[in-house]
Amino acid sequence: MSSVVLREVPVDSPVHRLWAGTKMIGVFVVSVLLMFIPSWALLGVAFVFLAAVFVLAKLPLGTLPRFPWLVWVGIAIGAAINVPVGTSALLQYARVVLFGFLLLGASFLVAWTTPMGEIAPALAKLGAPLKKIGWTRGGVRHTVPVDEWAVVVALTLRGLPLLLEEMRVLRAARKLRPKDSLLHRASDNPLVDILTASMAVSSRRAGELGEAITTRGGTGELTARPGKPGRGDAVALLVMALVCGVGIAVELVF
């Protein structure tokens, strides 16, 4: 995978200046639309739209991820399984694969154009209406923990790039270790070694991250960062609505 997966690419562009919530709304709308109408016409419109956003964001081509060869082998095996069923099954499988790549690309675009510090406040603001939902248990009023969910998602997104980088370092270090042909133990399994080391590193980083968050005032500070949509976000939402309308119109015509 590319080294910038789930990392912001520091480029000044109209897409970078949009509110994080606007981009997440766009991903949600595109995913829901393609989920209910996974036609070739809408898939093509979505692909063109994401390509246009990629160009508008001024992202270099090197940003695009390079998937491991095992991913392509798995896709090829799935296609081979569907071939005996018939052409319709193969086309349906191709639509599902393309749908998955489009959603993955949309998520990557959000990560490449959005600082990680803006994710939690945007999620908390978008989920604010859910705070009105509550229940009483044991005489205590409980509400939907929107802020806590936003913090969990934000910390997960922030931790994944670090974990991927650690996995690369551990894999490179494992390859540099001398091979002992006389010993064949379970601990010599490269997968076991990498997983064990990654768990240890993840635990250490989680502890350091927890201490840093506590020093800065707790998890509440992660969702308290100011941010709200502006005129550019209104234009972006209007453009997304027009794109969705064009996609539905193309589907009805063809």
User: What's the count of strands?
Assistant: 2
| Fraction of residues in β-strands | under 5%
Order of helices and strands: HHHHHEEHHHH
Low-confidence segments: none
Shape: globular
The helix content, as a percent range, equals: 55-70%
* Terminus-to-terminus distance: 36 Å
Structural class: mainly alpha
Describe the oligomeric state of these chains in a short phrase. single chain
Number of helical elements: 9
Radius of gyration: 22 Å
List keywords for this structure.
globular; 254 residues; two-stranded antiparallel sheet; mainly alpha; single chain
Question: What report would you give on this structure?
Answer:
- There is one protein chain.
- The protein has 254 residues and is mainly alpha-helical.
- It is 66% helix and 3% strand.
- It is built from 9 helices and 2 strands.
- The chain has helices at residues 20-36, 40-56, 69-82, 87-113, 119-126, 146-176, 190-215, 220-223, 231-253; strands at residues 134-137, 140-143.
- A two-stranded antiparallel ribbon has the order 1-2.
- Helix 1 packs parallel to helix 9.
- It is globular.
- The model has no long low-confidence stretch (mean pLDDT 80).
